[in-house]
Write a structure and sequence with these properties.
Mean pLDDT: 87
Largest sheet: 7 strands, parallel
Number of helices: 15
Radius of gyration: 23 Å
Length: about 450
């Protein structure tokens, strides 16, 4: 029996952990998974990890320098970097310092957790240097290659796949049960208190106009927790100030999005990736236009989707359905149709005819799995070669590396990787408590103090 591959996933938030772990499962179906959480403001809590529902054989919290020491010592086969662009770049330069010449090293994989609607060039160039840069659709793959080719960088790493968490049972109309409307909120879209209060009031108003419906406000996190994006105006606190309170058929809910969608008849959001999950299951899905269709909101990404609608239209009974052509370009195939098949890029290897988990009509991860298998079969892999170097970005790269306590050459700064050998359990526990207290103070400042100061500044 072949030896199980060893996979490490480094993530910096709950959503990126979910993406990274599920991506690892798609790329290397039979593996031993070790999870690492990058220490920072969005490090997920135990509750958030439990809600995601994806478990690792082992899980540890680390800094960038500590992670580099881990992958040098542990010899993983594949490393999935589920991080913001700057952190990906730091790890890749650290890996370049570890393996400056062709060597037996891990295959580095990175990508995006959802819809890519802002900072396209910046985020992509910070991810350049990974062996695979995953694109969630044909549309994204074309854009990614165009960015890399536009700066003269190798675009061979760009690999078309699909969001790894698309799945679930096909939609079945409510029938005898209550018609359920789910408003999937986002931590930072929209960002103003007035806009968020308006959207909440419209959801509450929909519940009052339709007492036969259940309206669920699907929350991303509890107050004091952080996700991929900062949430300065939590809906929980806004709900406390709704005139007359929430009606009996409207409530706030947490939980795994896939499980919430199991009983959903209409998904409403501004631009959440939950819309793609909903459309994949053929659930009527509305992308709100109440606040305009703007790049800052991300709902411009859904132009041509057939899902743009306002609360007024939803109040009148509209149930939007996705446009099949748009959905196919976004790597989404409604339930009942064949799964999206990845389109090989110019330098992609031939796709094996039979791969584990292949769906009838196509397998979105077939090309990516073939690439990973080919890289794992190589005796040695070249040193990672990010586009950003001290030659191409001398005024940008050093600052990115310094934020992760790496020198300009990618090596950890003195004291960056704290050895725990010989350190007492009490001292480690005390440091962990101090770290959590500091995070709590930071989150309190973001959600309580910063909004007050901002309002005072507007007087």
């Amino acid at each position: 029996m072949p030896e199980r591959k060893r996979v490490a996933v480094l993530a910096d938030s709950d959503t990126r952990w979910k993406w990274g772990a599920l991506t690892a499962r798609r790329l290397v179906p039979d593996h031993e998974l070790t999870g690492y959480l990058l220490r920072g403001r969005a490090t997920p809590t135990a509750r958030q990890l439990g809600e995601v529902g994806v478990r690792a054989d082992r899980l540890a919290e680390v800094t960038c320098a500590e992670f580099l020491a881990e992958i040098e010592r542990e010899r993983y086969d594949v490393v999935v970097l589920a991080l913001v662009g700057g952190a990906v770049q730091a790890v890749l330069h650290g890996a370049r310092a570890l393996w400056p010449a062709p060597a037996r090293r891990p295959v580095f994989v990175t990508g995006y957790v959802g819809v890519v609607y802002e900072k396209l060039a910046d985020g992509l160039l910070l991810r350049h240097g990974a062996d695979l840069v995953l694109a969630n659709s044909r549309h994204d793959a074309e854009r990614f290659r165009a960015v890399y080719e536009g700066v003269g960088a190798d675009a061979g790493a760009v690999t078309e796949t699909a969001l790894p968490f698309l799945g679930g049972a096909p939609y079945e109309p409510a029938g005898s049960r209550a018609h359920t409307v789910v408003f999937a909120v986002q931590p930072s879209v929209p960002d103003s208190r007035a806009d968020r209060a308006y959207l909440l009031e419209r959801a509450v108003g929909h519940a009052r106009k339709h007492p036969d419906r259940e309206v669920l406000i699907k929350l991303r996190s509890k107050p004091g927790e952080h996700t991929t994006h900062l949430e300065e105006q939590p809906y929980q606190r806004l709900a406390e100030k709704v005139p007359g309170g929430l009606p009996a058929n409207c409530r706030l809910v947490y939980g795994n999005m896939g499980e919430v969608l199991d009983g959903t008849d209409l998904l409403v959001t501004v631009s959440s990736t939950a819309a793609l999950e909903s459309l994949h299951r053929s659930i009527p899905t509305a992308i709100l236009t109440d606040l305009g269709i703007r790049e800052a909101l991300g709902n411009h990404h859904f132009l041509g989707s057939g899902c743009l609608a306002s609360w007024d239209q939803l109040d009148s009974g509209l149930l939007p359905e996705g446009d099949p052509v748009w959905l196919a370009a976004q790597g989404v195939r409604p339930a009942g149709l064949p799964g999206p098949a990845a389109t090989p890029g110019p330098a992609d290897p031939p796709v094996p005819q039979a791969l584990p988990g292949a769906a009838a009509g196509g397998d979105a991860y077939a090309v990516a799995r073939a690439k990973v298998a080919g890289l794992l079969a190589a005796t040695r892999l070249p040193s990672p070669a990010p586009y950003y170097t001290l030659t191409t970005a001398p005024g940008y790269l050093p600052g990115i590396l310094a934020r992760h306590r790496l020198a300009p050459d990618g090596r950890p700064l003195p004291g960056a990787a704290r050895p725990e050998a010989g350190e007492s359990r009490l001292r480690r526990r005390l440091r962990a408590h101090l770290r959590e207290a500091a995070r709590g103070a930071y989150r309190h400042g973001v959600q309580r103090v910063a909004p007050v100061i901002r309002r005072l500044g507007e007087l």
